[in-house]
Amino acid sequence: MKQRQVQKTGKMNIHIHNDISNTANHLRTRIEEMEATENRKGIALDITACLVMLAFTFESRLNFIGEQKVDGFKERRVFDTKLAKVLKALELDPDFSIRPYSTIQELKDFRDTIAHGKPETVVIDELVDFEPGADFDAFDLKGAWEGFLNIDFMRQCSKDIDVIWKEWLAAAKIDVHQTITQGEYSITLIEDFPAFDG
After folding, report:
1. d(C-alpha 121, C-alpha 119), whole Å
2. What pLDDT is attached to residue 137?
3. What is residue 189's three-state secondary structure?
4. CA separation for the pair 176, 164 (Å, rounded)
5. CA quadruple 173, 87, 62, 164: dihedral sign
């Protein structure tokens, strides 16, 4: 019996920025539902996760544009270096002191604090005026990153990175369909197949 063979060929373009963005959007939607129903149980944890995913979304989009438009782009470079190279390639000179670009530094600072989490010791040694009935035992144990954990900042980040993404796609002349994970695959029957000896 002769065994038939086929030639398989294919090409896949897998773009992780879409999956990361979908995760961020899922979390944002869940947080907004929690807010609408006044269910605040664990909401700060969900906001933390959402902000991390938004930061990852921005950087993965940065890497996508870099791969498309910057010769010799290296995704493992320092964030600011990658950002500068992409903006130069796109011939954009944004004002980082105003939104949407000012949000990028805030989001990156939050992401870095979470990603490089390290213990911190805060020493308090101060002389205060005594007031009868004052609560001298009040002690704030919040970390600096917790100031970012609010729904308004989450919405701001989500909106601003999407505004930047649209601007970048337009400047790069990349259609949205080119940013989606896609592939092509074919199988061709080999007519002159060898004899099967088994």
Report:
1. 7
2. 65
3. strand
4. 14
5. negative
Handedness of CA 68, 72, 75, 79 (dihedral sign): negative
Closest by CA to 139, choosing from 118, 127, 114, 122, is 122
**Of residues 67 and 129, more confidently modeled:** 67
Residues with Cβ within 8 Å of 29's Cβ and at least 6 positions away in sequence, in order, are none
Residue 123, number of CB atoms within 10 A of its CB: 4
DSSP letter, residue 94: -
**Nearest Cα to 172, choosing from 18, 69, 64?**
69
Which H, E and C letters describe 16-76, residue by residue?
Answer: HHHHHHHHHHHHHHHHHHHHHCCCCCCHHHHHHHHHHHHHHHHHHHHHHHHHHHCCCCCCC
Q: What's the residue count for the chain? A: 198
3-state class of 124 per DSSP? coil
Query: 93 to each of 88, 90, 156, how far by Cα in Å?
Result: 8, 9, 21
- Contact present, 156 and 107 (Cβ < 8 Å): no
Peptide bond into 100 cis (omega under 30): yes
Whether residue 123 is predicted with pLDDT greater than 70 in this model: the reply is: yes
